[in-house]
């Protein structure tokens, strides 16, 4: 069976944000060996914002625990300015709320720092190709977040964002540690279909986040006169 | 410690001025009846000046010293005793509030009560009461009650001050503890994050340094997993309303402790509160399932645990990618009481009113699904 691979779409201009010089060095080396061009590195939130605006990388690898503003906040700001940028989050301690905030702001995925160098490089490669990088931990987190949003919407007699049965099924299998290929086999669908489901879940979460932010802004009284931009 | 006495003595100054005004008004009204009206006018002026003076001193924490209270007490008792001569027997015998200060003399012992609580306040009140009795010993009900009010007022004000001081002290200690915890958590998070980074680095670089490096990498990986679990565990939110709730536990935190190399735990953000004894049972069932993975799934097997909340039900999935088996094997295991299934997993879940389903095939690993009803917290 021949898989269709769209190699051309892969982006290569990369920026790394991490406050540990050792890490920056090691990761830079690995990623350069893999053919990425490191256009900038940053060790603090301020540097990240400044250098990202200056170099406009296509892909960004962001550590969440950096000197202020923290990683999640930087992602929120930068994706507002550069919605096309592909962001992969890495973090040592993995504070759930920060990870969720980064993902809602539009990050493509999340890896813990203890992932092996191969996993990290693979994660960056997949992010650069525009795919979502879902670890089991992130899948569990996102599943829980959708349940929370649905419960809250029901409490307000509202219809919240919901996942299709298939999307829940795929997400649960990811959370239980199955690789996309294994999920595809189990559900009798293609590898690409599984990937689309995962991508859709992320898109829904991010879209809902934007709607929520807009509603919040309206409630706070930005409705008269002020322009309100929803993409 | 917060200046508890500040607001109390400011209110006291107002009260004291009211007492002074009352004394002046009453004394002016009886000026024609007293033995030495000019001395009375001088005394009223002194009362006014002294009251302003001590009120100012009481209001300043640094000036609130024993001598001020002693001077105030001596002056007050002196004024009361002077009533004999200044007012003359005609007034002191006839009036219910016969002393020169009228009710003003209660001011000094009240200050002592505010300052040192009920015992000192009571003693000071007693002294002023005795002085009042000395001036007009008539034992009519009205006059006796009037004088006892001094003692009662000083005792109760003193008592309330003591209680207020104790609660304020307790509350401040709690604030200090909470602030300390929050600060410790903040520092711990920074330290832990640094340690995690270094451990991850050791793990990463160790792998390429030969067999000894591999061992180092493995050790670092294990420590890293444990530290991360510990970090989640110590994240007590001191501002949350239920941070001191010992009757419920956050199942996410409990299950996170099983996280280690080869075992991935996925939980939702936020808390999944479960009644403590049920949480322990659920944890034990999960531990049992993971022990089975270690024992029977093979050395290369990895395991994943997923915690979900579906309405009033908790769903826990435990999957491994080990050697698996046939359901017949599992039936055998149950019959022989092996693998702790009858007594641990199925038994525990039945006790919790839940269910445990298992799915396996040779080479396909084992997959458990626990469903446990919980109260919606």
What does this 3D model show about the protein?
Chain A is of the alpha/beta class and 231 residues long. Chain A has helices at residues 21-33, 45-55, 71-81, 96-105, 117-128, 136-155, 165-175, 180-187, 191-219; strands spanning 13-17, 37-42, 59-63, 86-91, 109-112. Chain A folds into two domains: 12-131, Response regulator (Rossmann fold, 3-Layer(aba) Sandwich); 138-219, Winged helix-like DNA-binding domain superfamily/Winged helix DNA-binding domain (Arc Repressor Mutant, subunit A, Orthogonal Bundle). Chain A is built from nine helices and five strands; from the N terminus they run βαβαβαβαβααααα. In chain A, helix 4 (96-105) links the parallel strand 4 and strand 5. In chain A, helix 2 runs parallel beside helix 3, helix 3 (71-81) packs parallel to helix 4 and helix 6 (136-155) packs antiparallel against helix 7. The longest helix of chain A has 29 residues, at 191-219. Chain B is built from eleven helices and seven strands. In chain B, the strands form two sheets. Chain B has a five-stranded mixed sheet with strand order 2-4-5-7-6. Chain B has a two-stranded antiparallel sheet with strand order 1-3. Chain B is elongated, with a radius of gyration of 39 Å. The relative contact order of chain B is 0.06. Chains A and B meet through helix 1, helix 4 and helix 6 of A and helix 6, helix 7, strand 2 and strand 4 of B.
